[in-house]
Amino acid sequence: MDNFTFHNPTRIHFGKGQIEKVGSEIPASATVLLLAGGGSIKANGVYDQVTAALAGRTVHEHWGVEANPDFDTLLPAVELCRTEKIDWVLAVGGGSVLDGAKFVCAAVNYEGDPWQILQDQGASVTSALPLGTVLTLPATGSEANGASVISRRKHKAKLHFISPLVYPRFSILDPETTFTLPPRQIANGIGDAFCHVVEQYLTFPARAAVQDEFAESILRVLIKEGPQTLAHPTDYDARANLVWGATCALQGMIGVGVPQDWSTHMIGHELTALHGIDHARTLAIVLPALLEAQRGTKSGKLLQYAERVWGISIGDDESRITAAIEKTREFYEAIGIPTRLHDYDVSADVAPQVAARLAARGMTAIGEHQDLTPDRIEAILRAAA
Ligand code: NZQ
Ligand code: ZN
């Protein structure tokens, strides 16, 4: 296990009725920016609960943060923070609203063009407004991490930044707020969280027993509770387990001291940038093909994954690995996420395009062994056609 320093400063309030805690988390004297998406929080009553909890404070609102939040949608919110002297931001919605809010918090006092924040992946961020979140979609882990992914449709770009300064100060996770999610978004959340765990776990053995067994338990929970919550959307306990599982998948604990491989996400982001495919769906396209391409270097972990996550213990090494990759594909398909490019009307021509775009940003050797070169990335996407 490698050395590590772990600090996650986000206070989580989990469970029914917890939105009222917004009132004790944000100072009574604060001037608040409430950031929201397209209106789901009005339809499901979350907005009313939030405004009740914020009573007495000066609150400005910025709506319309879209899925895959766009730089150009967020700039007016940055300006609003400056003109209204906002001193707290409250994000209410899914990962896109939370990510958008992180960008706004980092951009308010940023000198120069804030697109630079994305270009240097957060290295130049030196301050950020305090952020609180009310999460309504379990998926990204954004509620308890320092990452944000911002798109710029004008440039066909989707880039991320990471900064310890944008961890939410607090996050409210009330599973009941997620009951109104349409099946497609529930499935996207399950599929995204699953991939987050896989990318921190399925590399090579590092004798990190706590991280491995925690990761495996999250995967098993997603496999069990994901379909359960899709079939019974108001089953509180199933949903609560999905919400907490998705948070635990990307709040840092399972990734400390171990090799990681975020190449599925890096390739997937390009598919969203080029074709607008939902984030989780891009992962479902890339992951099985990537595991197949890397079955040699990932064999130790693939065999462990086969046995401990899928209960596959019969057959020789190669057939157990094949079965584990097939189970992964079947899992995505079973929750309603197709796993082939052609399912999204995208041809294999996208393969060299994605490889070239990553190469242009210096990503010519990704993966835990830096062995995914442009030609191999192209081959993975061709295999995913
Ligand atoms: O905009 P509204 O009206 O709120 O509707 C949203 C949106 O249309 C809707 N929704 C959210 N909560 C709802 C609801 N509808 C009904 N009831 C509710 N309770 O769901 C739609 C999708 O929302 P979005 O926030 O886009 O989804 P998600 O949470 O999956 O976020 C995806 C974004 O997060 C990024 C992705 O790249 C993508 O841009 N990621 C962020 C990460 C991070 N910060 O650590 C890591 C991830 O890997 C990921 O890249
Ligand atoms: Zn993701």
CATH class of the largest domain: Mainly Alpha
Strand percentage:
5-15%
Q: Which architecture name of the largest domain does CATH use?
A: Up-down Bundle
Can you count the helices? 15
Q: Helical proportion?
A: 40-55%
Distance between the termini: 37 Å
Placed side by side, the strands forming the largest sheet appear as: 1-8-5-4-2-3
What is the average of the pLDDT values? Answer: 98
Concise structural overview:
The chain is of the alpha/beta class and 385 residues long. Helix content is 47%, strand content 11%. The protein has 15 helices and eight strands.
Note down, in words, how this protein is organized:
The protein is an alpha/beta fold and 385 residues long. It folds into two domains: 11-177, Rossmann fold, CATH 3.40.50; 183-383, Dehydroquinate synthase-like, alpha domain. The chain is 47% helix and 11% strand. The strands form two sheets. Strands 1-8-5-4-2-3 form a six-stranded parallel beta sheet, sandwiched between helices. A two-stranded antiparallel sheet has the order 6-7. The model has no long low-confidence stretch (mean pLDDT 98). Residues 37-41, 44, 67-68, 93-97, 99, 136-137, 139-142, 145, 147-149, 177-178, 180-181, 185, 188-189, 192, 250, 265, 279 line the site of 5,6-dihydroxy-NADP.
What is the fold's blueprint, element by element?
Layout (H helix, E strand, L loop, with lengths): L10 E4 L7 H4 L5 E6 L3 H4 L2 H8 L4 E5 L8 H13 L4 E6 L1 H13 L7 H5 L11 E5 L11 E6 L4 E6 L7 E4 L9 H19 L7 H23 L4 H14 L13 H13 L3 H15 L5 H12 L6 H18 L15 H11 L13 H10 L2
Parallel strand pairs: 1-8, 2-3, 2-4, 4-5, 5-8
Antiparallel strand pairs: 6-7
Helix pairs in contact: 4-5, 7-8, 7-9, 7-11, 8-9, 8-12, 10-11, 10-14, 11-13, 11-15, 12-13, 14-15
The structure holds 5,6-dihydroxy-NADP and zinc ion (ZN).
